[in-house]
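hey so u asked for the seq, here:
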Amino acid sequence: MRKIYKKSTSRKGFSLIELMVAMFIFVMVMGGMVAVSVAGFRSYGKSKAIKTVTEDVGFAINSIAKDVRMGKIEKSSAYADGSRKNKLMLTRNSTRQKICYVISNDNLKLSVFEGTTNCSDGTEKVLIDLTGSGMIFDSATVGFRSCPSASAANILTDPGYYACPSTAELRRGWAEINLNIASPSMGTDSISVQTTVSSRDYGAEVAP
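ran it, structure tokens below
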């Protein structure tokens, strides 16, 4: 007897539609994984930048406070009206060297100039540089408020020396430091550091 073989048609491959659906699902899953990875890297970059700036701000605050405590605030950077300025000039008692802390370059940099006469010459040392970080010094609140020491000689020769506050009593100088950093392009909270330091200018307590 002749055997008749029939071709089996029960085994079928993927259709074009099934293949397209599978590829679509694969692309969606991979896209989600890539998005999560990119967001994670961006978050890490922001956190690292904020951590670095926070450490720089702490170092800058300590440096300024130390110079204020152990130095004399110059009248050229003092305030009679209570407003803030972008510079603070001091004289270090130990070396008699004039130094000046300046916030410049469109509120992106805090520097100290050593051996200066006008807060722009001398040797510059950058304490905080926000260039390319997505952060800036908040121009509405950043800066320095200060008042020089009023010594007996100052009061006798220059009445304007006690314009802050308006009293002729002897006093030590003081400085208020505001280093407030905003992050408009990073979507994170601002970094705000403020402190007030008194100068140890003991000559201000000598009677006329």
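The chain has a mean pLDDT of 80. The longest helix spans residues 16-69.
lmk if thats what u needed
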